[in-house]
Design brief:
Elements: H1 10-15, H2 17-20, H3 24-29, H4 35-57, H5 67-80
Helix pairs in contact: 4-5
Keywords: Plasmid
Length: 82
């Protein structure tokens, strides 16, 4: 995780998840975020990953071919949590 739990700016994380978290799993494990907050951040990250995937399909390569799968896995994990 790139920020301590007490320093997380939710709005910044929502705008740019990759600037606040190294991996989607870091969102899942963050102790200061509610389930709804985690899902909101991960859904934004998912949209970013989908845009990147579409760009790669057009010949632009970002080097993060597995990010969409990791984000989807993290979303599913949060959905299963109580």
């Amino acid at each position: 995780m790139t920020q301590a739990a007490s320093e997380l700016d939710f709005e910044a994380a929502l705008r740019s998840p990759k600037s606040c978290f190294a991996e989607p799993q870091d969102v899942v494990a963050h102790p200061a975020l509610s389930r709804e907050m985690k899902l909101a951040i991960l859904r934004e990250w998912e949209q970013d990953a989908r845009r990147l995937s579409a760009s790669e399909g057009e010949g632009f390569y970002g080097g993060e071919e597995s990010m969409l799968g990791r984000v989807e896995d993290a979303i599913n994990l949060v959905r299963r949590q109580a």
